[in-house]
Each structure stands twice: as C-alpha cells, then as structure tokens.
Amino acid sequence: MDIPNVPSTLLDPVPHHPTAIPSPPLPAPSPASWSWPTEDWWRCWRSAAVSGRYEGNQAVTGPVGSALELRLDVDPRQGLESPVLNKVSGDFFSTRQVKVGGLTQIVKTYVESWIVDAPVVTMTRSDAHITGTVRYWKGTHPTTTVDIVVTWQHGAITGAVATFTGGGVAGEPYACKYRSDCFRDVNLELDYCQSVDIDPKVPVYNSHAHNNRPADLAERTLSIESSYKDAGVSVTIDPAHTVIDDSAAGFASWSVGELHDAMETSFGKYNSGWPAWNLWGVQAGLFDSAGVGGIMFDAAAGFGGAGRGPDRQGFAVFRNHTWFTNLVSNPSTQDQAWAMRHFLYTWVHEAGHAFNFLHAWDKARPDSLSWMNYDWKYDQRNGADTFWANFRFRFDDDELLHMRHGDRAAVIMGGDPWASGGHLESPPGAMTVSGPGSDVELALSAKSYFEYMEPVAIEFRLRNTSDAPVLVDGRLDPRYGNTTVYVQKPDGTVVLHESVVCFYGLPELVALAPAGTTDGSDRYSQLVQLAYGTVGFAFDEPGQYLVRAVYSTDGVVQASNTLPLRVGFPVTKEEDRFAPEFFTREVGLTLAFEGSMSPHLSKGLDTLTEAAERFSGEPLGVKAATAVAQSVGDDFYRRKDDKMVKHHTADPQRALALTDAGLATFQESGAPTSNLAYRNLVELRTELHVKADDSAAAKSEVETLAKDLGTRGANAAVVAQVKELIPATPAARSRRSAPRKPAT
Predict the structure, then answer these.
(1) pTM higher than 0.85 for the full model?
(2) 323: closest CA among 307, 308, 311, 337?
(3) Are 591 and 455 in contact (CB under 8 A)?
(4) Nearest-CA neighbor of 408 among 277, 226, 224?
(5) Whole-angstrom Cα distance, residue 732 to residue 726?
(6) DSSP state of 674
(7) Residues 6+ positions from 529 with CB-CB distance below 8 Å
(8) Is residue 311's pLDDT more than 80?
(9) In whole angstroms, how large is the CA radius of gyration of the chain?
(10) CB atoms within 10 A of CB 576
(11) Phi, psi for 92 (deg, rounded to 5)
(12) Is 594 left (phi over 0), alpha (psi -120 to 50) or beta?
C-alpha cells in the first residue's frame, strides 16, 4: 500500500518485532506534492500494540462449537514497564447453547491450553503475520502449526484470524476480536478488619520516593493495579469493601484456621463458579506469630462443603506489623517511603502466590529481582540494601511467562493446586548437595517407622560446626520459606512438600554457641509436621520414603542428610476401612492448621476425634487427640454478619482429658526420638492448665518433663529452656494477649 507523505505530527511510529525487517524510512515531504492523507492511509495507521488478548469463535460454527482466547506477546505494550516475551499462547473452549428459565444462553467449557515458544513475526504497515509450532501443555497431539493475521483500521486493532493446521490438515479459522492490551483479567475483592480500616487502604507509591532505587528507574506512581498491568494482568479492585468487626473481647490476633474460615465466609458471597479469575484479600491486624506480615491461603474449604472448593484464592496483609508503623498516605520522609514501598510489596507478593508463584529460592533462583523474592534474603546473598537498589518493581521473566502464557489450569485461581502446575513437576534443587566447610549443619531425624495413617513429624536440627558463635533464623517449618523439603515416595517420584500456608515475616534469630559446647547450646531443633501439604497427604502409602531438606537463609545454603523412613501397612481391617475417612482434605487441613473449629472443616475434626477414641494411646490416636485438643482448647472467632464473634469458647478441661493418654505414653517411653513431641505436648498442656486456672498442675508437668529429659540424656541447655515453660502469670501463656512464637 502506498502511504502519502504527511506531517510528522500525524505519524505514529509503527512497532515492529525486533527480528523483523523495519520498513524503509519515508522520503522527506515536498511542499509542492503534500496533500491531506488519503482514506487508505488512515486505514493503515495504527496507534496500539498488536500484543494483548483476543477472543473469538471458529467462523464455520459461530457462537456454538469451538472458541479461542488468543494471547499475543510480540511487541511493546504502550506506557508500561513491561518486557516483550515473544510468545503466543491461547486456550480452547467448547461452546454450546443452553436454555435456563426460558432464556437461551451460551455456555463455555474450557478444553486445553497451548503455547508457541518461538513465533515468527512479520510486521507491515497494514497487518501483522505470525506463525509458529504449537506446543500443548498436556496430552498427545499431532504436529500442529498456527497462522495468525492481525489487522487494524483507523488506528484501532480490528481483530485477528487464527488458523490451526494439525497433522497436515488445516482447520476452520477462528475470527477473534481485540479485547485488551493485557493477557489476563482478574477481579480483586478487598475486605478490611474494623481495627485497621484506615487510610491508606491500598498502596500508592512514587517510585522515586525512597532514595535506595536503581539510578535509571523511571519516576511513576505504582499501585497493585499498575504492578500487575506491567506484568500483563488487568486487576480490577472492587470499589466496595466489607468491614469485618474484629472488636470482640479477647480477639487480638488471627490464627490460620480463623483466617481460612473468614475467607470462606466472606468470599462465599462472590456469586461465581470456580475456577475463575477472582481473588480475595483481607487487611487484618496481627497474626498469631507477630513476625508474619502477610500470608497466602493455599487451600480452601469451598462452596457446598469443605474439601470441594478452590485453591489459591485468598491472602491477608497484617496492617499492625512493625513494617507499617510509619505508613501514611502521602510519605514525606524516608521511613514513611520505606513503609509505603513495603506495603505495596507485601500486597503484590501475597497476591502473586495466587497465580501459582512460589518463592524465588524455591525455584532455584535466589538472586531473582522479583516481587516473589524476599528483600532480606537477597541482601544476605548480595550485600546490604542491594535488593531495592536493583529491583525494578516487576516479576522476573520466568514468572511473566507463567502468568501470561502458562497452562490456564495452573494459573487461574481455583485451578491446579499451588506448586503443581507452575515450575515444580521436576523440583529444581531436589539434588542439592552441600560441600565441605559449612559453619552450619542441617540434620533431619525421626523414628524409622511410622504406623499407617500416623501423621509424620520430623526433627529439623541446626548445629554450629565452627569455633565462633553463629546467628541463624530459627523458623525451620517450610511455611516460613527458610527450608525446602523434598520427599521421594515409594514409587520413586520426587515431590516438593509445600505447606498449605505461606508466612511472610521477620527472621527470628537464634544464637548457636561454638561447636563442641558441652551444654548443647551449639544446636537448635524444631519438630516439623509434614503430614499434609499442597499436594495432599505426603505419606499416605505404605512403603519406603526418603526425605531431604535445604536450609537457605542469611547467605547459607545447606542441604540436610537423606532421612529414610518407612510407613507401615494397615494391621487390621478396622485401620484399612478407616483410611478413606482419614485421608481427606478436611482432616489434612485441620492437622496443617494445628487445629480449627471452622464449620467448613467440621468433618475433619469429627474424624480426628474418632481416631483419637479408636486408637487411644497408639501413635495415630495420640496425634489425632492433640489436633482435637488444639482445636477445642482455644477460643475460635469467625465472621458473622460482617462481625467477628466468638464461635467457640476454649474448653481446656476437655483438651486436657483428650491428651492425658498421650502424656502417659510419652512419659512411659524412653525413646529419644519422642523428646520433642513430649515437650511440645507439655507446652500445649501448660497453656491449657493456665486457662483452667491451675498453674500448679502446669508447674508440676513442666518439672516432670525437665526431670525425664535430664534422665534421658538431654543437654543442659534444653533442660534449662524447658524450665522456662513454667508460667509466671496466667496471661503469659495466652495466645490472645501474646501472639504465639515457635518452640525453641
């Protein structure tokens, strides 16, 4: 097409793919030959990028038959800090007509997703021609190619026509309309607890507000919406929000179970089927572990009953965390700018988990400058203040690829479970081996045999191997992100064991004395529960398992030993028949949440109560009874009519009765492998005795524990720590007055 010469103010640059050959420059205009642009020129002029999302149907079928959502990522989207990935992807849907209430409507059913890894793009003044080989995410397909033509008129994209050729046979083309310059659309519903329903309600940050930033970073206003639009996702925040009255007497912090229950109660009002591009966030006051600033809920009970709901749909930010002490709407100091920047970072980071993003180090990319890394973990490896000095407020390219072009089921909220479809089918880092010379040793230990259905717990121990004191982060549970756990199952497959919740918070430093200290202060242990994770029960099959962990923090990357353990076969028909009731989502979540009185998980609590009675005194019965005691022995608050109310009042006497058999079992056992479990149970019972106004009983049990551990050869430092469990005042052991901290 001939394009007349026009004044430069009328010409908009025509984007072209970096690999395409640009059109030759136009000749300089001649005053004698210049005329107003012709209609042909206006049809060829284009003001928008080709990249974005298109939707349409096969031309031969119309609205009924087959539909396509097409995503083109081949040229820069305007006005955004967003790299071009040079990818094309899409989702196929089947469409049909249904009649509801006398009205006919079109229903779409998702079929499958695909991607073109290396499209060939040719840009002209009138269209864009894109071709490439299609790779399907799942299943077996004949060799398939796609041919896409994008056209525009009067400055606007008019649409795209995509033709797929499979096995040498071309199908009917899809005629698609241009929908958006973003690749996905997400609705975000935000609710606020009354105690923190204060401004600023959402982060708004000037990229130049804090001096620690990349020197060439463009100055612009950043928000949740703009951060995700850069990534290619259009986030729409519901302008209306619900205020949850959290003023109930005694309610000072949130447990995992309460957040989970509140999410189900609140988000259940969103009238939409799952999976869907819908996300829920809540701003709360404090978490039970005061160092946690944000949390993502991986698992949900769902609509119509626990165990049948979506995953990856809700998260919380804790406004009363010390990070946000200086938070104001219009920062004027560096401390205020830091707080607003971290406010933005926490919201974007936690929402990122809902897209199936793991932390950067869990994907073997600890030096990634991404929303999904931790600033302090990056600085530990690369130097103080280096994260923010280099961070450009974006996800890394691998994450962008997943978010924009990944298998729909692995990305959409309510689709595949967290960590199942993103990056970890073959877990990177599973074969990490630590070389000699490390100053910290990570050792895993446990009894070698677990009975069938018995929840597996493993001791994680850090030990100083140097001749100088060492500070370590004592949060060894995988939910805090410092340890990554790999499990080789009896069939030989290796899986990443991810916690169903993700805690984002401050390090809890533990000082390890120099190696060889006789009182045992050179080591630190925690008992880590691994029964249930994002992929379900990790140890639900009889047979031999191998477990390894990698500790990564403070510049240390240390792999553990390989721990073998065996899960036995059901001994009786009773066990075999009970297993299907036990290996359920409701039971798993109750165990993972360390107890819950949520009605959504009531079936799980009932099953654990039955297990405690059926198998009293046996390992399964002891652990089931402990989970029930954790549930009934604490107050539980849940949302009712937008107000947090006490749903369950702590019943410490019942909880103590439930754990009497377990206490007797541990006191009678002399096995060192039970020492940590014995201690944890006594610590729980100490809290229960105090709630029952019986400090004398609490003191007596702690003294007996200290004596037993001393007799069994426990180190003096451990015995001294145990004696500190004796409560000074009733309030000292109250979760509501003093948020929980990990056991030491």
Answers:
(1) no
(2) 337
(3) yes
(4) 277
(5) 10
(6) G
(7) 455, 456, 457, 477, 591, 592, 594
(8) no
(9) 29
(10) 13
(11) -100, 140
(12) left
